[in-house]
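Posting this for the archive.
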Amino acid sequence: MDALSYILIGILQGILEWLPVSSKGVEALIMVKFFNKTLSEALVLALWMHTGTLLAALVYYRIEILEILKNLKNYIKNPAKDSIYLGIAQGFTAIPGLSRSGTTISTLMFRGYSAREALRVSFLVSIPAVFGVEVLLGLLKTSTFDILMIPGIIASFIFGLLTINSLVKLAEKINFGYFCSGFGFIIILFVIISSLYNI
């Protein structure tokens, strides 16, 4: 893959990370189909792209993160039921192809959160999850790194930062259930057509 290819994957990551779909799964599928990567190679590259959106979330929610850190003792002393449910739900997202944001957002909305607030909380809890489980543990298992990935990671950061606010506002206007169903149908259709015509 060249730098432009990594940039395209980075842009995709910057947009899909905030949506209730598996960004890692979609990116891996594209890299396998169009860039001749094996599934294991594609998943590693997708992990590197996650570092860009991780940094975007840190920048966007920097004030909330500082407030949480200042009041960390209170959070530990008084764990809310919602936090426990959210932790359990996030644990299930270790299953390949299961969207972390989709699962946590659904859990929060089931608990009575508005779509906007569910997105905000989901993005905040994604920071330690993505850093600890996906990025740190995933990348420690591999030494695969190409300097050409850097433009892709930068693109992931920029587009992640540009799209996160828009998507939080969009959450107030769309039905996530319809969105997930529609996006899933498109992906299934794409896989069927590409298999039939060897795309």
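The chain has a mean pLDDT of 78. The longest helix spans residues 115-140.
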